[in-house]
Design a protein that fits this description.
Layout lengths: L2 H14 L8 H23 L5 H49 L7 H28 L10 H4 L7 H59 L1
Amino acid sequence: MTRTARSVLPWLVDRIFPLPQSLTPAERKADDERRRAQKNECETRIASLACHEKSLTGYLTAFAGTLERERHRQQSIEVRLTTVVGLSSIAGSIVFGAMLTNNLHNAPILLHRLILSCLLYLILQIASAMLAGVRGLERQPYTEMTFEAILPSPDEDRSHHLQRQIRECFDILIQNQDRNNAKVTQMAIAHCALKNFTVGLLILAILASVLQLQSVN
Protein backbone atom coordinates (compact mmCIF):
# COMPACT_ATOMS: atom_id res chain seq x y z
CA MET A 1 0.00 0.00 0.00
CA THR A 2 1.40 3.40 -0.98
CA ARG A 3 1.84 6.25 1.48
CA THR A 4 -1.01 8.17 -0.18
CA ALA A 5 -3.35 5.20 0.19
CA ARG A 6 -2.35 4.78 3.85
CA SER A 7 -3.25 8.41 4.50
CA VAL A 8 -6.48 8.44 2.49
CA LEU A 9 -7.90 5.16 3.81
CA PRO A 10 -8.14 6.26 7.48
CA TRP A 11 -9.82 9.49 6.33
CA LEU A 12 -12.42 7.51 4.37
CA VAL A 13 -13.03 5.20 7.32
CA ASP A 14 -13.55 8.20 9.61
CA ARG A 15 -16.12 9.61 7.19
CA ILE A 16 -18.08 6.35 6.78
CA PHE A 17 -17.80 4.44 10.07
CA PRO A 18 -15.14 5.79 12.46
CA LEU A 19 -12.97 3.07 13.97
CA PRO A 20 -9.70 3.05 15.95
CA GLN A 21 -6.65 2.98 13.72
CA SER A 22 -4.46 -0.05 14.34
CA LEU A 23 -0.71 0.45 14.66
CA THR A 24 1.62 -1.02 12.09
CA PRO A 25 4.18 -3.59 13.33
CA ALA A 26 6.90 -0.94 13.06
CA GLU A 27 4.86 1.57 15.08
CA ARG A 28 4.04 -1.07 17.69
CA LYS A 29 7.71 -2.03 17.98
CA ALA A 30 8.74 1.62 18.33
CA ASP A 31 6.11 2.13 21.04
CA ASP A 32 7.34 -0.92 22.97
CA GLU A 33 10.94 0.27 22.73
CA ARG A 34 9.96 3.73 23.92
CA ARG A 35 8.13 2.23 26.91
CA ARG A 36 11.11 0.01 27.84
CA ALA A 37 13.46 2.97 27.57
CA GLN A 38 11.16 5.03 29.79
CA LYS A 39 11.04 2.28 32.42
CA ASN A 40 14.82 1.80 32.33
CA GLU A 41 15.34 5.54 32.72
CA CYS A 42 13.00 5.60 35.72
CA GLU A 43 14.81 2.64 37.31
CA THR A 44 18.15 4.38 36.80
CA ARG A 45 16.92 7.60 38.38
CA ILE A 46 15.33 5.82 41.34
CA ALA A 47 18.51 3.83 41.97
CA SER A 48 20.55 7.04 41.95
CA LEU A 49 18.35 8.80 44.50
CA ALA A 50 20.03 9.68 47.75
CA CYS A 51 18.77 7.51 50.59
CA HIS A 52 17.37 10.46 52.54
CA GLU A 53 13.94 9.73 53.93
CA LYS A 54 12.73 13.32 53.62
CA SER A 55 13.59 13.68 49.93
CA LEU A 56 12.22 10.21 49.08
CA THR A 57 8.98 11.06 50.86
CA GLY A 58 8.70 14.19 48.74
CA TYR A 59 9.13 12.20 45.52
CA LEU A 60 6.56 9.66 46.67
CA THR A 61 4.10 12.44 47.48
CA ALA A 62 4.61 13.91 44.00
CA PHE A 63 3.87 10.51 42.42
CA ALA A 64 0.76 10.15 44.59
CA GLY A 65 -0.48 13.53 43.38
CA THR A 66 0.09 12.51 39.77
CA LEU A 67 -1.88 9.29 40.34
CA GLU A 68 -4.73 11.29 41.83
CA ARG A 69 -4.80 13.61 38.81
CA GLU A 70 -4.92 10.55 36.57
CA ARG A 71 -7.95 9.28 38.51
CA HIS A 72 -9.67 12.64 38.00
CA ARG A 73 -8.81 12.40 34.30
CA GLN A 74 -10.44 8.97 34.16
CA GLN A 75 -13.62 10.31 35.77
CA SER A 76 -13.75 13.27 33.37
CA ILE A 77 -13.36 11.01 30.33
CA GLU A 78 -16.07 8.63 31.55
CA VAL A 79 -18.49 11.51 32.16
CA ARG A 80 -17.99 12.68 28.56
CA LEU A 81 -18.43 9.16 27.21
CA THR A 82 -21.66 8.80 29.17
CA THR A 83 -22.88 12.06 27.63
CA VAL A 84 -22.01 10.76 24.15
CA VAL A 85 -24.03 7.58 24.70
CA GLY A 86 -27.01 9.63 25.91
CA LEU A 87 -26.86 12.01 22.95
CA SER A 88 -26.52 9.11 20.52
CA SER A 89 -29.60 7.42 21.97
CA ILE A 90 -31.66 10.60 21.55
CA ALA A 91 -30.36 11.12 18.00
CA GLY A 92 -31.15 7.50 17.15
CA SER A 93 -34.72 7.91 18.34
CA ILE A 94 -35.14 11.00 16.16
CA VAL A 95 -33.72 9.31 13.05
CA PHE A 96 -35.82 6.17 13.44
CA GLY A 97 -38.87 8.33 14.04
CA ALA A 98 -38.16 10.23 10.83
CA MET A 99 -37.84 6.97 8.91
CA LEU A 100 -41.17 5.70 10.19
CA THR A 101 -43.20 8.88 9.81
CA ASN A 102 -41.92 10.37 6.54
CA ASN A 103 -43.84 9.41 3.43
CA LEU A 104 -41.40 9.18 0.52
CA HIS A 105 -43.56 7.16 -1.88
CA ASN A 106 -44.44 10.21 -3.97
CA ALA A 107 -40.90 11.56 -4.08
CA PRO A 108 -38.83 11.41 -7.28
CA ILE A 109 -36.76 8.23 -7.40
CA LEU A 110 -33.40 10.06 -7.16
CA LEU A 111 -34.51 12.19 -4.23
CA HIS A 112 -36.06 9.14 -2.60
CA ARG A 113 -32.77 7.25 -2.79
CA LEU A 114 -30.75 10.21 -1.58
CA ILE A 115 -32.93 10.64 1.50
CA LEU A 116 -32.81 6.93 2.33
CA SER A 117 -29.03 6.89 1.86
CA CYS A 118 -28.72 9.88 4.13
CA LEU A 119 -30.85 8.21 6.80
CA LEU A 120 -28.71 5.09 6.56
CA TYR A 121 -25.58 7.23 6.91
CA LEU A 122 -26.99 8.85 10.05
CA ILE A 123 -27.71 5.43 11.53
CA LEU A 124 -24.11 4.34 10.84
CA GLN A 125 -22.76 7.40 12.65
CA ILE A 126 -25.04 6.84 15.64
CA ALA A 127 -23.98 3.19 15.81
CA SER A 128 -20.30 4.18 15.64
CA ALA A 129 -20.68 6.80 18.39
CA MET A 130 -22.61 4.47 20.69
CA LEU A 131 -20.17 1.61 20.09
CA ALA A 132 -17.21 3.87 20.92
CA GLY A 133 -18.99 5.18 24.02
CA VAL A 134 -19.79 1.69 25.28
CA ARG A 135 -16.25 0.46 24.60
CA GLY A 136 -14.81 3.45 26.43
CA LEU A 137 -17.04 2.78 29.44
CA GLU A 138 -16.14 -0.91 29.64
CA ARG A 139 -14.73 -1.94 32.97
CA GLN A 140 -10.96 -1.66 32.99
CA PRO A 141 -8.62 -3.34 35.52
CA TYR A 142 -7.11 -0.18 36.99
CA THR A 143 -4.10 -0.92 39.18
CA GLU A 144 -3.89 0.16 42.80
CA MET A 145 -1.09 0.08 45.32
CA THR A 146 -0.74 -3.44 46.68
CA PHE A 147 -0.35 -4.21 50.36
CA GLU A 148 3.14 -5.59 49.63
CA ALA A 149 4.13 -2.12 48.42
CA ILE A 150 2.39 -0.29 51.27
CA LEU A 151 3.87 -2.39 54.06
CA PRO A 152 7.64 -2.74 54.49
CA SER A 153 9.26 -6.14 54.23
CA PRO A 154 10.86 -7.62 57.35
CA ASP A 155 14.19 -5.96 58.11
CA GLU A 156 13.65 -3.46 55.24
CA ASP A 157 14.86 0.01 56.08
CA ARG A 158 12.70 3.05 55.49
CA SER A 159 14.70 4.38 52.51
CA HIS A 160 14.54 1.17 50.51
CA HIS A 161 10.85 0.86 51.31
CA LEU A 162 10.21 4.36 49.95
CA GLN A 163 12.20 3.59 46.78
CA ARG A 164 10.13 0.44 46.25
CA GLN A 165 6.91 2.45 46.69
CA ILE A 166 8.12 4.98 44.10
CA ARG A 167 8.73 2.14 41.61
CA GLU A 168 5.26 0.78 42.29
CA CYS A 169 3.70 4.22 41.76
CA PHE A 170 5.54 4.59 38.46
CA ASP A 171 4.26 1.21 37.20
CA ILE A 172 0.71 2.04 38.28
CA LEU A 173 0.86 5.46 36.63
CA ILE A 174 2.02 4.02 33.30
CA GLN A 175 -0.69 1.33 33.28
CA ASN A 176 -3.46 3.75 34.22
CA GLN A 177 -2.31 6.29 31.63
CA ASP A 178 -2.46 3.59 28.94
CA ARG A 179 -6.02 2.66 29.93
CA ASN A 180 -7.13 6.30 30.02
CA ASN A 181 -5.49 6.95 26.65
CA ALA A 182 -7.50 4.04 25.22
CA LYS A 183 -10.65 5.69 26.58
CA VAL A 184 -9.60 9.00 25.00
CA THR A 185 -9.24 7.19 21.66
CA GLN A 186 -12.81 5.90 21.94
CA MET A 187 -13.99 9.41 22.87
CA ALA A 188 -12.26 10.83 19.78
CA ILE A 189 -13.99 8.20 17.62
CA ALA A 190 -17.37 9.08 19.13
CA HIS A 191 -16.79 12.80 18.54
CA CYS A 192 -15.80 12.11 14.91
CA ALA A 193 -19.02 10.11 14.41
CA LEU A 194 -21.10 12.90 15.95
CA LYS A 195 -19.48 15.46 13.64
CA ASN A 196 -20.32 13.22 10.69
CA PHE A 197 -23.85 12.94 12.03
CA THR A 198 -24.18 16.74 12.17
CA VAL A 199 -23.07 17.08 8.54
CA GLY A 200 -25.40 14.26 7.46
CA LEU A 201 -28.28 15.84 9.34
CA LEU A 202 -27.69 19.14 7.54
CA ILE A 203 -27.75 17.34 4.18
CA LEU A 204 -30.92 15.53 5.17
CA ALA A 205 -32.56 18.84 6.10
CA ILE A 206 -31.69 20.25 2.68
CA LEU A 207 -33.11 17.19 0.91
CA ALA A 208 -36.26 17.33 3.03
CA SER A 209 -36.68 20.99 2.14
CA VAL A 210 -36.36 20.18 -1.57
CA LEU A 211 -38.95 17.42 -1.19
CA GLN A 212 -41.30 19.77 0.61
CA LEU A 213 -40.94 22.43 -2.11
CA GLN A 214 -41.68 19.85 -4.81
CA SER A 215 -44.76 18.62 -2.97
CA VAL A 216 -46.05 22.18 -2.66
CA ASN A 217 -45.53 22.85 -6.36
